[in-house]
Amino acid sequence: MYDLILKGGRIYDGSGLPSFIGDVAIGNGRIEEIGKINAPADRVLDVGGLAVAPGIIDFHTHFDAQLWWEPLASSSTDHGVTTVVMGNCGLTLAPCKPEGREALIGTFVRVEAMPRESLEAGIPWEWRTHGEFLDALERRSLGLNVATLIGHCAVRQYAMGEASVERAASDAEIAEMEALVRQGMAAGAFGFSTNSNQSHYREDGKPVASRFAGLGEIARLCRAVGESRRGLVQFTHGAFATPEHVAHISQWYDTILKETRRPLIGESIRHRWSEPELWRKQLNDVEERCRQGYAAYAMTSTRPSLRRWTLKDSNRLDEIAEWKNLMHMPVELRKERLRDRQTRVKLDRATSEGKPINFSRRWDCVWVKKAALAENQALEGKTVDELARLQAKPPIDAFLDLALSEDLETTFEDSATQGDLEAVRAIFASPHVLLGQSDAGAHVANGNPGFGYATIMLAHWVRRHRIMTLEEAIKKLTFLPASLFGIHNRGLLRRGMAADLFAFDPEKIDLAPPEKVSDLPERAPRYIQRAKGIHYTIVNGSVLMENGAHKGAYPGKVLRSI
Ligand SMILES: [Zn+2]
């Protein structure tokens, strides 16, 4: 007699092997059998026609505060996430002395854009050490599994107080920090995170504490992680601001890798129109470190920075002077000019000749998002380039003829990042790149929240653009992060593994529109974003979410690396 059977789904087991149809039997929180199962169970879910996969492991979140008042980690669990790693970017709420709380709050307020009043009201501060933080979390109900990193800023604040945001550490202070990292690893943290991003400041305008660390401090703290022979180091450094910063980052990479012999997640790689070749160089750097024998990884965001605009009212093309001049004309005059052949020739030349800043200047990267007229609906989703081929005319004419026929009310869409499919395919497919960077739990007022990064991957990149197989995408969202962090009993559907799964319709999975809610402590607002097409999220063998609704269970666990 099993607790739960998922019957007749197509199983994507997380390994990247081809999917197959079968049943999954669950008992005592674990996967007991996979195959053709006729035994009885307390509950049988018919998942015929759905994909069944390991739960998503979101390895880059900032749920450190939210989980104390909202144990579901919404909206992550809406998207099939069953495990989150928090404590990224050098920021954690432990270790912390009472007199250091204000400093940590000020860091979260500024770097992660969380409301101060919610943090002040919502964090119970039942701990000093990282281990006590994990114990306190264990006393709470949790919807999903939680793993932690030890944050450098918290460690530095604990050992140095306010001097942590003023100067380099002394030998004795570094020794105290080392002890804190060792304690945290001994208590079950999954590694250490640090941050040298030059745009990261506390609320009071001081740089975050980890930015004051010297190479010696980094070496010794990372060595303490390496000694545990568990976990990894996560390194946030932001854009390559100056040649000095580039050299600094490179030294930190080499030091961390050499001192730990553990995986390092650094570098955020994504395609940008302003520096369209930079991603190749970044990817080469990571690959070169791997050739030297280090476990170096980068991450990328699956969220494109989509822009929607019309030729009626938009500054989207303003970086091209010819377009900007035109867009500033009164609408009737603008329409007249857009019909003029000479103007079109000039616009076409100006678009293709200059260097992109934010706008791609490529007609294969601009598509029709919404037609204003019913008769043009069939064109939605097509790129301007595709329209041009369909209508056997130059792209500039296809673009302007459509817009003019709809009184300039056609909505076009393009993306400022991850807009070049060829680049995205190469970045996403690289074995050195993790898909994620959701920052879930942070930047709460962002109307484009990160919870649904896996849903975007499965809907936008796999279904729509077919940039990799569903098998491969599931592996990158589950087995790969589980393996790197050392969460060894999750991330795969195999007998004996923890029963974290989600079942979804690959043809229907998608983001719902973002919603503004006021559910933070002190009723501060935030954005959430639900999913479509996800039927079940199962954590440790219990159904957590069913068709977007929480079913009342809190089956999540605090994960420990020991
Ligand atoms: Zn982060």
Kindly describe this structure.
With 562 residues, the protein is α/β, with parallel strands linked by helices. The strands form six sheets. Strands 1, 2, 3, 4, 5, 18, 23, 24 and 25 form a nine-stranded mixed beta sheet that branches. A hairpin with a 2-residue loop joins strand 24 (542-546) and strand 25. Helix 4 (152-160) crosses helix 5 (171-187), helix 5 (171-187) packs parallel to helix 6 (215-228) and helix 12 (384-391) packs across helix 13 (395-405). The model has no long low-confidence stretch (mean pLDDT 95). Bound molecules: zinc ion (ZN). Zinc ion is lined by residues 60, 62, 88-89, 439.
What tags apply to this protein structure?
17 helices, alpha/beta, binds zinc ion, six-stranded parallel β-sheet, 562 residues, 25 strands, nine-stranded mixed β-sheet
Protein topology:
Elements: E1 2-11, E2 20-27, E3 30-35, E4 41-46, E5 51-54, E6 56-58, E7 81-86, H1 101-111, H2 116-122, H3 130-138, E8 145-148, E9 150-151, H4 152-160, H5 171-187, E10 191-195, H6 215-228, E11 232-236, H7 243-260, E12 264-268, H8 278-291, E13 296-301, E14 306-309, H9 321-327, H10 331-339, H11 341-353, E15 367-370, H12 384-391, H13 395-405, E16 411-415, H14 421-429, E17 433-436, H15 453-464, H16 470-477, H17 479-485, E18 501-504, E19 510-511, E20 515-517, E21 526-528, E22 531-532, E23 534-539, E24 542-546, E25 549-550
Parallel strand pairs: 1-4, 1-5, 6-7, 7-8, 9-10, 10-11, 11-12, 12-13, 13-17
Antiparallel strand pairs: 1-2, 2-3, 5-18, 14-16, 15-16, 18-23, 19-22, 20-21, 23-24, 24-25
The structure holds zinc ion (ZN).
The site of zinc ion has 5 residues, from loops.
